[in-house]
Amino acid sequence: MDILVCVKAVPVTAQVQLDGQLYLRRDGVKLQWNLADESALEAALQLKGTAGSVTVLTMGPAKLEEPLRELLARGADRAVLLTDPAMA
Fold it and tell me: What backbone phi and psi angles, to 5 degrees, belong to 46?
C-alpha cells in the first residue's frame, strides 16, 4: 500500500503575532508540524506494512527542507516540498 500524507507547518501558537492587516507575522517564528498531520503520519506508517511506502507532501518555503528530513527519520519513505512564490 502506497500512502500520501499531506502535512502543514504551522507557527508555534505561543509565538503568534498579527500585523496591522491581521496577517500572521512569520519572520523569526518557529514552525512545527500540525498535530493532526503528525497523527496522520503515524497512522500511515502503521498501515503501510512491509511492502508499502509513505510519502509526505507539503507546500512552503525552502526552509522546510530540514523539518521534512525529520519526517523521513520518523519513517516516511519520501518527502516532497512544493515551493513557489505564486502559492503564497
Answer: -75, -35
Query: pLDDT-derived band of residue 87, with 50, 70 and 90 as boundaries?
Result: confident
Q: Are 51 and 33 in contact (CB under 8 A)?
A: no
The answer on pLDDT for 51 being more than 90 is no
Q: What is the pTM of this model?
A: 0.81
Q: What is the distance of C-alpha 38 from the center of its chain?
A: 8
Q: Among 20, 22, 26, which residue's Cα sits nearest to residue 12?
A: 26
| Euclidean distance between CA atoms 1 and 48, whole angstroms | 5
Cell numbers for 55: 510519502
Res 1: pLDDT: 86
